[in-house]
From TrEMBL:
Sequence ranges assigned to domain DM2 in this UniProt record: 14-90
Source superkingdom: Bacteria
PANTHER family linked: SWI/SNF-RELATED MATRIX-ASSOCIATED ACTIN-DEPENDENT REGULATOR OF CHROMATIN SUBFAMILY D
The protein's name: DNA topoisomerase III
InterPro entries: SWIB_domain (IPR019835), SWIB_MDM2_dom_sf (IPR036885), SWIB_MDM2_domain (IPR003121)
Amino acid sequence: MATAAKPARKPNAAFMKPLKPSATLAAVIGADPLPRTEVTKKIWEYIKAHDLQDPANRRNINADDKLRPLFGKDQVSMFELTKLVSQHLS
């Protein structure tokens, strides 16, 4: 008995639409318009490259000089990250 293959899931068009980063966000990820998924990926690359995850609680991200204006505080949780970054996309 053969099972039918599931159709591939279509990506949500809203997530794939390139958005322009603010000057504050562009300082971290560059000025090119990117989809939200790529923005999040680039922010995490930056966080990992600069070892900004709190060693005591890896769910928290410590802001450096580039991230502090983006976050508005010295530390955020990974769950706040998307919401804060969304405010810098248009």
